[in-house]
Design brief:
Helices cover 30% and strands 19% of the residues. By secondary structure, it is α/β, with parallel strands linked by helices. The protein has one domain: Alpha/Beta hydrolase fold, catalytic domain (Rossmann fold). An eight-stranded mixed beta sheet has the order 1-2-4-3-5-6-7-8, sandwiched between helices. The protein is globular.
């Protein structure tokens, strides 16, 4: 085995230096799962069909002129759909994130999930979570992510299918934190839903602020969905976010709320993982869709 090789090239892997420089994705975006989360829990995994939808990979031009891959789904007929940006877990835009887009589309929304690590590398090729965190995620600046999400909004405008005047965002794990940040970044956002996203952390050049620091700057109300038995996001940190929202006193912060599911682990919505909790996941989905409908991101009505 090549010392610089992450896994055998026979299964389409890339070298460590290729991972770092961001090689093109060799498998279609939204297909399969990251190596780091294998094997998947096939018995609980949800697969949403594409009938009645327009769904698949698109390229979004970013502000620096690059082409960012993204997975997009919306009803095949009609226009003016409420629009939801779907932000990936640390594993990138794999099959589960694509399916989330299709679930939104089936319910009458336009959903777009950009591959926000595309400059830094392909997380689906890395052999383990620590490699992804160390060699990709740790090198992704928050400012870059905010700009790329803005580029997604511009792309959606050009498609004339989604209505960016009815804009929402949701994200899972890494994407949950990004959801809070984008709600403080985009004044045109109507609502956000953050699934078990970290709310506190060490400041750095690439991650200067965290959600707890930005409560007063929220431009749109955010619903936080958290697990009470999440070992990576202690309950006391979630309580700090609740306190920050209360102390902020702004309209968006006052309308924001956090719901915690007792005795529930991290990633309880990830139906392809052992952490999946069906009851909490289904309740969270109902809360999320109701949140968007109630806060200016309505689904299309049949």
């Amino acid at each position: 085995m090549d010392g610089d090789r992450l896994i055998s090239p026979a299964d389409g892997s890339v070298s460590r230096r290729d991972l770092l420089t961001g090689v093109p994705v060799t498998v279609g975006l939204g297909a399969g799962f990251a190596l780091a989360v294998q094997p998947v829990q096939a018995q609980t995994m949800i697969t949403t069909p594409t009938d009645g939808l327009t769904a698949g990979e698109v390229n979004v031009k970013t502000a620096d002129g690059k082409e960012m891959p993204a997975y997009r789904a919306h009803p095949a007929s009609g226009t003016g759909f409420g629009t939801i940006l779907v932000v990936q877990e640390i594993w990138g835009v794999h099959q589960h994130i694509a399916d989330v887009c299709r679930r939104f589309a089936k319910a009458g929304w336009y959903a777009l999930a950009p591959e926000l690590y595309f400059r830094q590398g392909d997380p689906r090729k890395a052999p383990d979570t620590q490699t992804i965190l160390r060699e990709i995620v740790s090198k992704v600046p928050d400012a870059q992510v905010m700009g790329d999400l803005d580029s997604c909004v511009s792309f959606i405008k050009t498609e004339n299918k989604g209505d960016t005047g009815k804009l929402g965002i949701t994200g899972f794990c890494w994407g949950g934190r990004i959801t809070w940040l984008y709600a403080a970044h985009n004044p045109n956002l109507k609502a956000g839903v953050a699934w078990y996203g970290r709310v506190v952390g060490q400041s750095s050049e690439l991650t200067p602020k965290h959600p707890v620091d930005l409560a007063k700057e929220l431009k749109a109300p955010v619903l936080g969905l958290y697990g009470g038995a999440d070992s990576g996001i202690p309950n006391d940190t979630v309580d700090k976010m609740r306190e920050a929202l209360k102390a902020a006193g702004t309209p968006a912060a006052s309308k924001s709320m956090i719901h915690t599911y007792p005795d529930t682990p991290h990633a309880f919505h990830a139906d392809y993982r052992p952490t999946y909790r069906k009851e909490a996941a289904e309740d969270g989905w109902k809360r999320a869709t109701a949140w968007f409908n109630e806060h200016g991101v309505p689904a299309a009505r049949a």
